[in-house]
Amino acid sequence: MQYSGQTDVGMKRSVNQDNFSIKEYAPGILLAVVCDGMGGARGGWEASSTATDSFVASMDSFVTSYLTEQNTIECTDSQIHRALRRAAYTSNRAVFHRSEEDASLRGMGTTLVAVFIVGTTVYTVNVGDSRMYVVRGTEIEQITHDHSYVQYLVDIGRLTKEEARTAPNRNIITRAVGTESNIDADVFVTEINPAEERAYVLLCSDGLTNHLEGAEIAEILCADTPIEEKPQTLIARANSRGGTDNITAVVIGL
Q: CA distances (Å), 107 to each of 43, 71, 227, in order?
């Protein structure tokens, strides 16, 4: 398993409110998380950094309980699902309490998307509109489902996917970590078979997907370049299109 991540302020913002973390617990066992903060320059950064740190700490505790001396995770799918939801809840509570303690941070929040990879199984949790994609061969699939107003309009047939890409209210999200005392997180399970074809997992903030479509993302990930260059190339391409927001990309090769 190879991995690399990068975050960039973009071309229009003065402060980067994105945060990410990648942690390999043992060969074939990896955690990665991306958070995109909101709530003003200070509030957005506080929200995303607090959520990232809290999420990782919660998963650290889980892995410590189930990682064997042989570097395997001895637990069920259901236990991993609960661990990811608990980590999202812990992040939400930490951000919410931080905003309650400091009036200047009231209303801050963040998206959160994370993967916990065990061998060839990818467990994903998300809140908001940061995304997780899987590229198999040259085909890309968005695994997460945006918690956004325009996605809701697409779901009920009021907008097409193409219209949603340029809708003026496309940055309005319907779920966020830290804006309320409780949170509802989605969990997905994806099986990868690297023996059949090379696969990549991408976690990214909407600063990337506002400028790049799926086919272009897949082309960059599948290019014969080192893993360290792939996030850099994705971000550079988004910046060349205007870089209207902070941009974060975490790429994991399986």
A: 8, 41, 37
